[in-house]
């Protein structure tokens, strides 16, 4: 049996441990996580697909490595309630509520109404001292955002590892907030694309920008 050819994006799993390690030693590296936050949305908005989730997601690859190759997963079926709309959309709303609350705290620190908290908050509840990772090299609001965003990224990774251990390796992907958001964006784009394709069929396609076909 011919071995499947590897591509450069098959090694993106390494990004997850590197990101978490960088944030452990210097919290300002947490800002790099905005790439993982924005890129899936941009691909969905401008490309109309979940290409990031299907090909480029470093976290999904890392979970596959831990649960698949390293066999750290019980490999049990993902529960139906995790796949349900109410849970996926509920988790999305909760996730973004916590994100905007983090932005509000960042604003308070930036305005001087609140002091910088050099802690990492796990599961939105438990505060862990993390002062060694910040030496005052940036504005307080910049550091506060980094502490908050790293907390969000570390917590979501821990949730992913827990459900990976209990169920299938990529069970996190079933209710991942970014996956749910990109799916919603793709659904919103679909009616427009269907409309463009219908118009092309009715009028005779001449290579318009709508469907991207070249002129015959």
Automatic annotation (TrEMBL):
Superkingdom of source: Bacteria
Keywords carried by this UniProt record: 4Fe-4S, Electron transport, Iron, Iron-sulfur, Membrane, Metal-binding, Transmembrane, Transmembrane helix, Transport
Residue stretches in coiled coil: none
Domain 4Fe-4S ferredoxin-type as annotated: residue spans: 29-68, 158-189
Pfam families: Fer4_5 (PF12801)
Transmembrane segment boundaries: 18-46, 86-107, 141-167
Signal peptide region: none
Name of the protein in its database record: 4Fe-4S binding protein
Organism annotation: Allofournierella massiliensis
Lineage, opening ranks: Bacteria, Bacillati, Bacillota, Clostridia, Eubacteriales
């Amino acid at each position: 049996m011919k071995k499947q050819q590897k591509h450069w994006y098959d090694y993106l799993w390494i990004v997850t441990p590197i990101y978490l390690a960088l944030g452990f030693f210097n919290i300002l590296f947490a800002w790099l996580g905005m790439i993982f936050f924005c890129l899936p949305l941009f691909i969905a908005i401008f490309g109309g697909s979940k290409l990031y989730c299907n090909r480029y997601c470093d976290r999904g690859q890392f979970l596959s490595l831990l649960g698949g190759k390293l066999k750290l997963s019980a490999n049990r079926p993902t529960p139906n309630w995790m796949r349900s709309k109410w849970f996926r959309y509920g988790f999305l709303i909760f996730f973004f509520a916590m994100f905007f609350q983090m932005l509000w705290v960042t604003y308070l620190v930036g305005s001087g109404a609140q002091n910088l908290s050099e802690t990492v908050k796990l599961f939105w509840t438990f505060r862990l001292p993390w002062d060694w990772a910040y030496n005052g090299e940036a504005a307080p609001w910049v550091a506060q955002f980094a502490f908050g965003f790293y907390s969000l990224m570390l917590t979501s990774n821990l949730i992913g590892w827990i459900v990976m251990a209990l169920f299938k390796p990529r069970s996190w992907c079933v209710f991942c907030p970014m996956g749910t958001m990109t799916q919603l964006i793709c659904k919103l784009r679909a009616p427009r694309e269907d409309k463009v394709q219908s118009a092309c069929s009715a009028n005779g396609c001449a290579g318009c920008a709508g469907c991207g076909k070249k002129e015959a």
